[in-house]
Each structure stands twice: as structure tokens, then as C-alpha cells.
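haha ok so turns out i had the wrong file open the whole time. this is the CORRECT one, sorry everyone. sequence first:
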Amino acid sequence: MKAAKLGILMLDTDFYRPKGDIGNPDTFPFPVEYRIVEKATIDRVVKKGDNALIEPFIKSARYLEEKGVKAITTSCGFLSIFQQEIQNQLKVPFFASSLIQIPMLHTVTGGRIGILTARKASLGKQHLEGARAGDIPIAIEGMDDRPAFTAAIVDETHALDMEKVSLEMEEAVRMLISNYPDITAIVLECTNMPPYKRTIREMTDLPVFDITSLINYVVKEL
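then structure:
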């Protein structure tokens, strides 16, 4: 059996992943290899940025290398904080987060880049610096106070209601655009957001990028 081109390091979570989500293999037109990083919970990755997780991520990434993957990514945009630490220990290309696209998007659009994140309260300068985007004009809106999204994805206390989550994301994007009308492109930090990308693109008429955009860009050239 031919090795998967892409390896995906998964957080230790347990919620429904529809097509379009990075955790659903049907999202991709090519085989992928998953590896769950044990005890890499949302609390430790998103809320705490726990440095003790760097070694487990490196170990899991090396496992994927041994399986023959040509590139590795992750299931959480907040892992941009560990981009260099993990990449330095690997032989294959590694891209931790969709946020890595921000410098390129600023270059080609010339304006402010909007970020829609799972948790605005946790997305700090260190995450942007990890993506080489620390000095780029950005605007951030989060899903922190949106109950359907937070309960399903962050807290894992309720089943995913895609209709409600879509409405909440539309509300968040409207607020983002209203507060920053100079935005020229949007990046979805969270890898659970791609199923709703088309709706966001249609309502804003702006280019919208996510982890699948980056994956397709990289894998096509492997």
C-alpha cells in the first residue's frame, strides 16, 4: 500500500467531524495518516500553550515520518506557537497552523488580515510570531461567547449542531468586518471551521483561507 502523502497530528479530542473538518479523511482527495498526540487536550494546547507538549508532538511527528509521509500538519491552529521547535526536529515539511498563510496573504492583498479563531482570549502575540506574522496588521474575532461552537468544539459538552455553529460563525464574521472594514482576506485559525468556509466567502466577498487551503497548496507539490 502506498504511503499517505500527508501526516496529521491530532489533538486528543472526541467530537463529530463532518466532511471538510481536518479530522475527517473524506475531506481530502488523497490518503492521510492520522496520529493522536495523547493528552494533548484543548485545555493544554489552546488555553495554556503547554510547553511540555513539544516533545510528545515531536515524537508523534517522527512516527509519521517513519510511516513515509511527505509532509505533516496538525489539527489545531494554536500550535503555531511550537512551529519552529517541532520543525527543527523533522526532515519533512511541517506546517502547524493555517496562520502561517498570513504573511503571504498580506503581501498579495496589501491590507489587514482578519482572523476568526476558536478562542480569542487565548490567541496571543506568541502565536502570531510563531507564524512569522507578528508585525502584520491583523484583526481578530473569536468564538469564545458563541455557545453552540464552544460547547461542541472547545468544551466537548454537547453534540455538534452545524446549523447553529454556522449562524454563530456568520455573526462573528459580521462583527469582524464591521469593526475592521479594511480587511482584505480572512484566515480561519480553527481546523474545525472549513466546513463553513463557503458561507463566509459568499457573505463577505473576500478570499477566505483555512488549513485545507494550506494543505492543498503544499501536498500538490509533493
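Residues 6-97+214-219 form a domain with the Rossmann fold fold (CATH 3.40.50.1860).
again sry for the mixup
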